[in-house]
Amino acid sequence: MKNGIGIKQSQGVGLKGRVDPKIVLFSQILQMASTELEQAVQSELNENPALERIDDEREPLSREEILQHLAPQEVQNHDESRESYRSRPNDDNNPDWIDFASSNDSLWDHLRGQILPALPERLRTLGLYIIGNVNDRGYLACTPEEAALDTNSSLEEANEVIECLRSCEPCGVGATDLRDCLILQLRQPSNESEHLARLILRNCWDELVGRNTRAIRSRYKVDEEAVQAAFDVITSLNPFPGEGFAAHSVTIASEKTVGAAPDVHVSLDSYGWIIEIPGPSPLHLRVDKVYENRYLDLTGKRSSPADEKRHVTVFVDRARQFLDALNSRRENLARIAKYLAEHQSGFMKTGDYRFLQPLTRAEMAKELGVHESTVSRATNGKFLQIATGEVIAFDVFFTPALRIQHMIEEILRYEHPDRPLSDKDIAERLEAKGIKIARRTVNKYRDRRKLLSSHRRRSA
Questions:
Q1: Are 161 and 284 part of one and the same domain?
Q2: Which domain holds residue 193?
Q3: DSSP H or E segment with residue 241
Q4: Quick check: 173 pLDDT over 60?
Q5: Which ranges in 344-422 belong to alpha helices (H)?
């Protein structure tokens, strides 16, 4: 009997002792935040002579150098260039769209200030969603069908709000592409040149791009001078109406976000989601060429010096495993970010917690075909930058109560100051939005967010 127990114990110890060091390394690297990972990489570089960093000593090309090769006309310093036109003083009585941009507002703040007061309350959630889908160039990155589906609205309501957006300043915002943006800016032509420019944009885009003035003259029965005047109008338009807010919006976003470096960047452009994993990458590291070549020479040679073979083999294998672990970390983070972008698109586009859908790590792991511990290690203590530029903790997606807490904050933000809402009123409003919770639960969540009771809000 004692022998039996002894055998079982020794087997158990033996099994524990045979844990694959590679799996341990992969787990350790996966759970590291970007700052910890950089330290781990530097430590490995110091300890492992078979691992080296790839240093690119070439200076990156400047924007001017790129344009000089790809679009030399963009860097010509002629008087009638688009930039020189935009820099001219505005002598007429019509204010330039930039005058509407408050120095303290981002593009999205600027749009919210114009759209939300003009919408009935039932369309404000839809309005916030659509504003959140405007990219930093001012283009709308979602279709009316997507907006309607994600907000449980009708297609007619989505088109109504988008049309409201397209009437906002800066002129051209809410366009779907460059051509649409330029046409929007000529929605109300004030002279013959602008009228002709609008017709050219609508009906002669290929001729415009090809500078085929003959075809345009023939179609509209005008002379060369009229066509050139229309071309001048078009080149004076702003192709990226959100551009004037870009530098400031980054600053504002950083003031509102968590003071942590994001481990994943998720952004959106006209082609779809863009996922970037900052920090150390296998592309920045490699096995030292001398060690790699010596490793190949020693492999299979029985007469090789044992000490040298052991030294080279150990460090080359260690370097390869470290690179594999780095690559595995990036792949797992990218898959998780892609899953969130697809399944939490409303929140990822707008940062509005009302669009946050209930989710658990176990559900995500099952969908991705990985163990729950993999998702847990990949997300615990890490941060994600969403399309608005806001940096949030991954834990936000796995905290069901957080969505309701933020919705309560939103309800109280718009309550009448002289008639503050009771917890029962808040519960009824949440139920109208499809969330059924008890009054005491509202009280508990309100306390967590340090929100005053209705009596104290009235007194305040």
A1: no
A2: 187-236
A3: none
A4: yes
A5: 345-350, 361-368, 372-379, 400-413
